[in-house]
Amino acid sequence: MADRETTSVPIRAGFNYASDPALLASHRDEWSRLREEASIFRVPQSSGDAWYLLSYDDIRNALQDWELFSSDFTAYMEGGHKMIPENLDPPEHTKYRRLLTSSFSPAAVRAWEPRVRSVCVELIDGFRHQGACDVVKDFGLQFPTAIFMEMMGLSLERGDEFIARAQTLLHTTDADDPGGSLRVEAAMQIFEDIAELVAERRQRPADDLVSHLVVSQVDGRALSDEDLGGMGLLLYLAGLDTVASMLAYSLRHLAEHPGLRRTLVDQPELIPSAVEEFLRYYSIATTPRVVTRDAEFGGCPMKRGDQIIIPTASAGRDSRQFPDADHFVVDREPNRHLAFGDGPHRCAGIHLARMELGIALEEWHRRIPDYRVADDAVIIEHVGNVAGLSAVPIVWD
Questions:
Q1: Burial letters for 361-376: b for 16+ Cβ neighbours within 10 Å, e otherwise?
Q2: Is residue 305 classed exposed, middle or buried when 0-12, 13-18 and 19+ CB atoms within 10 A define those classes?
Q3: Which of 350, 368, 328, 296 is nearest to 124 (CA)?
Q4: CA–CA separation, 234 and 232 (whole Å)
Q5: Beta bridge partners of 288
Q6: Model confidence pTM above 0.85
Q7: How far is the CA of 287 from the CAs of 25, 356, 380, 387, in angstroms?
Q8: Strand 286-291 to strand 388-389: parallel, antiparallel, or no bridges (unpaired)?
Q9: Chain segment 291-346, per-residue pLDDT in tens
């Protein structure tokens, strides 16, 4: 491990985690290589430095320290759209997050289990007799999107529209969209969708999450259209993308490791543990924060206004926290991964995500126990705030 004294902090001019060729080729391996060189490094920028945190301990400590590292980084985002409560800090964050607690509590999520399982089975039965599918397009995106839209009160017939907008906003690269106009347009379309639904629910409440939020209050006042738009944007992107990405990684991994796949078919009781290991092994989120005051962190002199970049993929492969970190251990215990974040901003939908992933692996392997990646498959991994796979074509007999 390189010296972490202030005078020895590695500097990487021009580094961009979303476009660096080495990271695009195999970002988890590259994070591990960089972490062994130095657990923190600095990238000079025109408006303050960016600090990359690569060790499990530094990442966990930063996620917990909301007073030093603010989540209000909207000034650095495309279009500056604020997601609520993600881009708020306590105590404001706590007030808005509390509004989601009842909808995403363990008890509330359990009540959704029959419907989640029914949607999952219906999707798989729709293509299992074909002998082939693209895990991303035909299953990974469709499954959580259907659940999200029902929870929000959106029309299921518009699912493909919503998927396309989320994909454009989250996964369009600077090379494909140099000025960011495609991403800005997608964000505006999402806000328009949310505003339309909010207006409808103000007039005609229903039994859905948006209706609940429309009548909710913070500090004795009703939520504004701006508040509801920010909350809707967060739910939209989280509901349509993160579980889809994890399913793509998980089923590709199982397609390429028949021994592990057979273990889960024969011992489905291991699926909850396997879900946690997939979350660790393929952690997909890279989270930014903003430094709130001049301070030293990990021996590094950070200044107010600097950014920090937190790749959970690096935390998940840190061998000081996870023995044999580069190997998938289906019954790993303990497994205190940071795939859902940590501290006050830990994912509010953690129980729903775990349930969706577990049910997907259960029902898939009941119906399609043996499968493999298609011989002519072209699989491209995109790296950014949320990593993912472009397609996973698989076949079975």
A1: bbbbbeebeebebbee
A2: middle
A3: 368
A4: 5
A5: 309
A6: yes
A7: 20, 23, 22, 11
A8: unpaired
A9: 999 999 999 999 999 999 999 999 999 999 999 999 999 999 999 999 999 999 99
